[in-house]
Amino acid sequence: QVQVVESGGGLVQPGGSLRLSCAVSGSIFTIYDMGWYRQTPGKWRELVAAITSGNTNYADSVKGRFTISRDNAKNTVSLQMNNLKPEDTAVYYCNVNSSDSYYPYGNDYWGKGTLVTVSS
Predict the structure, then answer these.
(1) What is the pLDDT of residues 32-45, one digit of tens each?
(2) CA 36, 62, 43 angle in degrees (round to 5)?
(3) What DSSP state is assigned to residue 43?
(4) In this structure, are strands 10-12 and 114-118 parallel, antiparallel, or unpaired?
(5) Strand locations in 8-85, DSSP E?
(6) Do 82 and 62 contact (CB within 8 A), yes or no?
(7) How far apart, in Å, are the Cα atoms of 57 and each of 1, 60, 72?
(8) In this model, does residue 116 exceed pLDDT 80?
(9) What residues does 3 pair with on adjacent strands?
(10) CA distance linking residue 43 with residue 69, whole number of Å
(11) Is 57 helix (H, G, I), strand (E, B) or coil?
């Protein structure tokens, strides 16, 4: 099995910064795509940022403020969030697409989420 664990959420004032981290462990063969999604009550989960082996993709609302990065040696992905706004308040989920002993052709895995609250 593959485990995905997020950390780094919390309360921050508008204009502040937070760094989210996600660690992936288990019987992993290859990690393909990694990404961060967020969700607020009553809304669909939306893509915030994603990273493949060579490309990154960001939601328009976070471009220029958020930066996604990954460490393939450590099987981790991070999201640096700067100039945070109240509308960034959400539960942030780490998503990983990887192959493993149960799913040799790949499967999506999700963490349980970490809450980010931007408020004065």
Answers:
(1) 999 999 999 999 99
(2) 60
(3) S
(4) parallel
(5) 10-12, 18-26, 28-39, 46-51, 56-58, 66-71, 76-81
(6) no
(7) 27, 9, 18
(8) yes
(9) 25
(10) 26
(11) strand
